[in-house]
Design brief:
Number of helices: 1
Shape: elongated
Order of helices and strands: EEEHE
Number of strands: 4
Distance between the termini: 21 Å
Structural class: alpha+beta
Radius of gyration: 14 Å
Strand content: 25-35%
Oligomer: single chain
């Protein structure tokens, strides 16, 4: 079961990854999901801004697929 290209939404303190799981040559969608990752200060356990090196790496890796805010096609964003 291949995953289709994930779409990433980048916020100030978090990023979201929307993904699809497909089956067969017709790419029948059998699951879709979203994970939200929040960057936190380990001492205070409070959200902090995404560190610039990590943000830059996400932006470089995702390129044009990067979405501001909510991300791509998953979870009601079709």
């Amino acid at each position: 079961m291949p995953f289709r290209d994930a779409k990433v939404g980048l916020g100030r303190t978090s990023y979201k990854v929307d993904f699809l799981v497909t089956r067969g040559e017709a790419a029948e969608v059998i699951a879709e999901g979203r994970t939200t990752h929040v960057i936190v200060d380990l001492q205070t356990r409070r959200p902090i801004p995404i560190p610039e090196p990590f943000r830059a790496a996400l932006e470089a890796f995702e390129g044009e697929a990067l979405q501001a805010g909510n991300g791509g096609w998953g979870m009601g964003n079709k």
